[in-house]
Design a protein that fits this description.
This protein has about 220 residues and is an alpha/beta fold. It is built from 8 helices and 8 strands; from the N terminus they run βαβαβαβαββαβαβαα. Strand 4, helix 4 and strand 5 (about 110-115) form a beta-alpha-beta unit. Helix 6 (about 180-185) packs across helix 8. The structure holds 5-O-phosphono-D-xylulose and cobalt (II) ion.
Length: about 220
């Protein structure tokens, strides 16, 4: 599978999301990653389905919605109606992840399951047949701009082995050009990147977004010597 770069709009200008999304897609983003936080499952608040609905017309690629909320089930229909393409729920968010993932697909979205740095890969193995994507968190969820947690990397190879070649394995948190290659070598194919994509640019001067995306993609796909 080709490597996809999914900028997290958590690092974009909150007053200009529509323009930021159009700028980062024009600069080469493959997907747009939308971080939904509830102040309960994670210690931060961001946005809900109404914001996703407002962003939808600005996204030409894939709206990749990362739900850091608990419970999940009462909100699935709203995010599906808002236009989410991929809807990812955390395995730690409740006791019935199997039901949640079935409900996400029934609502018309591609289901994803995310796991925190402290959660072993085995926790999602029983639901791999239900998902299109596993999101391996390489920071503790809740904030952008945190340091990458190395100890999550061995989980990627385990999940690639269990999930086969068609499963998307997404890495989220602290991704940059300096670790992209190791992540892809381990089996990842989707790299979420917030601060390392939006750093140095703006809607008025979006060229750095393109330079940052190209740097990550080049590092991820370079031939090792
Ligand atoms: O889900 C999350 C954080 O909880 C991520 O999507 C971050 O928003 C990624 O930001 P960087 O670590 O790349 O700055
Ligand atoms: Co995220």
């Amino acid at each position: 599978m080709s490597v996809k770069i999914a900028p997290s709009i958590l690092a974009a200008d909150f007053a200009a999301f529509g323009a930021e999304i159009e700028a980062v897609e024009a600069q080469g983003a493959d997907w747009v990653h939308v971080d939904v936080m509830d102040g309960h499952f994670v210690p931060n608040l961001t946005f809900g389905p109404d914001m996703c609905r407002a962003l939808r017309p600005h996204i030409k690629t894939v709206m990749d919605v990362h739900l850091m909320i608990a419970p999940v089930d009462p909100y699935i229909a709203a995010f599906a109606e808002a236009g989410a393409d991929i809807l990812t729920a955390h395995v730690e968010a409740g006791p019935h992840i199997h039901r949640t993932l079935q409900a996400i697909r029934a609502a018309g979205c591609r289901p994803g399951v995310a796991l925190n740095p402290g959660t072993p890969a085995e926790a999602v193995r029983p639901v791999l047949d239900l998902v299109d994507l596993v999101c391996v968190m390489t920071v503790n969820p809740g904030f952008g701009g945190q340091s990458f947690i190395e100890s999550a990397i061995p989980k990627v190879a385990q999940l690639r082995d269990w999930g086969g070649p068609d499963l998307h394995i997404e890495i989220d948190g602290g991704v940059s050009a300096s670790n992209a290659r190791r992540l892809v070598d381990a089996g990842a194919d989707v790299l979420v990147a917030g601060s390392s994509v939006f750093r140095g640019g703006s809607v008025a001067d979006p060229a750095p977004y393109g330079e940052n995306i190209r740097a990550i993609r080049t590092a991820a796909t370079s031939v090792s010597v």
